[in-house]
Amino acid sequence: MITAEKERELRRFAADIRIECMKQFRAIGIGHVGGVMSICDLMACLYGEAMRVDPKDPHWEQRDRFIMSKGHAGPAMYAALALKGYFDPKELVTLNQPGTNLPSHTDRNRTPGVDMTTGSLGQGFSSGLGIALGCRMKKLQNDVYILLGDGECQEGQVWECAMFAPAKRLTNVIAFIDNNKLQLDGSVEDVSGVHDFGGKFREFGWQVIDVSDGNEVSQIMEAIHQAKEDREHPSMIILNTKKGKGCFFAEDVFNHNIPVAKEQAEQALAELTAYKDSL
Amino acid sequence: MENVILAKENGMEELEMRQVYAKTITGMIDEGEPVVALDADLMRAIGLLPYQKDYPDNILDCGIAEANMMGVAAGLSLEGFVPFPHSFAVFSSRRSIDQVFMSGAYAKLNIKVVGSDPGICAGLNGGTHQAFEDVALMRCVPGMTIVEPTDGAMVRDLTRQAAKTYGMFYIRMNRLKVERIYEEGSAFEIGKAVQLRDGQDATIIAAGREVIEALKAAEELRAKGIQVRVLDMFTIKPIDQEAIIRAAKETGAVITAENHNIIGGLGSAVAEVLAEHCPVPLERVGVQDEFGEVGPVSWLKERFGLSAEYIVQKTEKALLRKRT
Lengths: 279, 324
Hints:
The complex is a heterodimer. Chain A has helices at 4-28, 33-37, 40-50, 74-84, 123-137, 156-167, 188-192, 197-204, 217-229, 262-278, and strands at residues 30-31, 65-68, 144-149, 173-179, 182-183, 186-187, 207-211, 235-240, 258-259.
């Protein structure tokens, strides 16, 4: 369990990440608001507590790795990285501008702290497993964190990974599904339902941990702690999240990739700041 | 660097290409190279299965899941390993092209994709397994080096060179016994064609299994009083522009021969160079935009017009065009 003080710190960090995401969207006027906002709490937990990383040395050999397999959530990762000191937060407003180091989908060759290039869904999962295999071959004592979208799990490659990781005993893998239940064209269940994520991964040999509120930092930290305890299986943490969480104009509406008007962004920023100050 | 010794005779080799490949891979592992051979349940087909138990870390079966295998290769590359993912050419290319493209090439990683049994070499596995499009797919991937080893000596040398050269490779390879073209110990320069014989009337540019057909065609043509130059264009990308331009200028006609669709492969690559630098009559021997069919290789090479006889015909056609 994390202390109350740590919990407050992570909540404030998550609020800061959302604020920086909103500034990125404000600058370019459009973005994957829904799937970015749903994972800000996870980003806060990983970069604020769980992962062993060194912002001054992004390629530190012993570090934990993180792969954003749902690559379109790049802005949430960029916000966390900038706030942790990987690069100047002033750079965040260059999101998707010509020549930027912060492209829509995460790119290892552009952004300090991004371990792998992603964007074509399902692929980050496999490269993460390859990294885990390589780390084990090098006898590193680290963990490899991988974040998938729930819609992403419609990709067949995800299920190739589901078989591969337990078969190769990749016990240094801690994966997450951002189970926000929506994809671009509608609800995941309606479009092509995966149904019970947990049951499926468990059947393949994963330790499955279900987080009832995946936007709650204490629950996320508890799940990561449990995942680290199990060194017999790879772990899959299912985060039941809300797409667009914390952004008044994106919750409960179509929010996959949407225009963001200046006024909307200003109001969202005011609300997020007030929320943060209340913590 | 280049030290090519042509074989005195072109007889059948003693070892299969896959045996040479497997020995080269394990040899590099023994020497401490961070090579990892990955497979998608075709380890037996590529000759690595007998070695798996002795190299449990460096020879890995990913199961029948090529997309994941390419992604795992990307991850291994990130950690400093040199992965050689293998499957039949159809699966190494078109089945997993997006993974090769994005997780490998776009991410600027270091993966040596091996595609075996290309084109008619797939023989009795039939049309579903005959890759006539793999080179075309790979040529469009920025930064991809494409090599097609001609015989065992070249498999050994190019496999080692690929391992030592950072970047994406596509190694297109027959698995079985082929006729010897080069002596053991030959060293090749990637991106530089090998001239197997000289002539002034025309140039045949061939790759892979078509090289031996080109040599046979050159012999037949010689009997008819026609002297052709033969180039082994084992590197299809980056193509040896200099050798192509020189051939066009010095012989005035070019014939390409490939075990691939004439669209997108060696013939297209040569045509691009000629059109931009030195247009001369060009004839392309290869699959004429068709799907493969089941049958023995000896039958398939006639069915798709890939035997020496067709190279002779196309050469004569090119010579007619050259004269008019």
